Amino acid sequence: MDEDSADSHSITVGVAIPVPEPWRTILDEARIESGDPLGGVVPAHLTLLGPTEIRANTLGLVEAHLAAVAAATEPFELHLRGTGSFRPVTEVVFVAVVDGIAVCEQLEAAIRNGPIDRGPQRFPYHPHVTVAQDVDRAELDRTFAALQDFEAKFEVAAFTFYTHGTADSPMGTATPWTPRAEFALGS
After folding, report:
1. Boundaries of domain holding 123
2. What sign does the CA torsion over 148, 150, 154, 156 have?
3. Residue 81 contacts by C-beta under 8 Å, 6 or more apart in sequence?
C-alpha cells in the first residue's frame, strides 16, 4: 500500500466521558446482565461523539481540535440519577444525566464544529449513559427498574478520544474501541 492510500483510508473514531469506578462496574454489570451485545465490550460512558468515520490523514487536525475544545472547557460535575428510555422511538434504556447536561451539550456541539463533519443528526443530542439496547422488551423493563435508584456524582476533568478498527483497517482485523488520547479540560 503506498503512502497516499494509507493516509486516505477511513477510520472510525468516537469521543466519550468514561464513567469512573465504582459506578462503571455497576453499570457494566447491568448492561451485561441485560444481554446487550455490547455489554462487557464497551465500558460505561457518556458519548460526546458517536462512531464517526474520518480519513486517517485528518487525525492530527481532529486531535488539535479536540485539544482546543478541552482547553476551552472547565472541569465540571456530572450527576447521574435514575433511568430513562428513548422508547418507543428506539429500544434503549439509559441512566439519566441530571446535572452537567448543558456542559455536555456544549462539548458535543463544539466537537462537531470543526474538522469532524457528521452531517445532519438523526436525533437531537441527549447526554446519557446507555445500559441496555438491542435486547427484548422484558430485559429493557427489568434494567429500567433495576437501576431506577442509581446515583453517581463525579468530576469530569477530561474526555477520551477513541479509535475503532474495522475489517478493512490496515491491520486487516476488527478491533475493539481503543483509547487514543485523553484531553484534560481547562488545560
Report:
1. 3-184
2. negative
3. 95, 96, 98, 150, 151, 152
Location of C-alpha cell 490496515: 170
CB 51 within 8 A of CB 80: no
Based on the structure, what is the number of domains in the chain?
1
**CATH number of the domain that 178 lies in?**
3.90.1140.10
Set of cell numbers at residue 123 = 436525533
Give per-residue pLDDT as tens, 142-174. 999 999 999 999 999 999 999 986 544 444 444
In Å, what is the CA distance from 43 to each residue of 31, 77, 148?
Answer: 9, 20, 20
Phi, psi of 62 (to 5 degrees): -65, -45
Residue that the C-alpha cell 446519557 belongs to: 128
Model pLDDT for residues 25-40, shown as the tens digit of each residue: 999 999 999 999 999 8
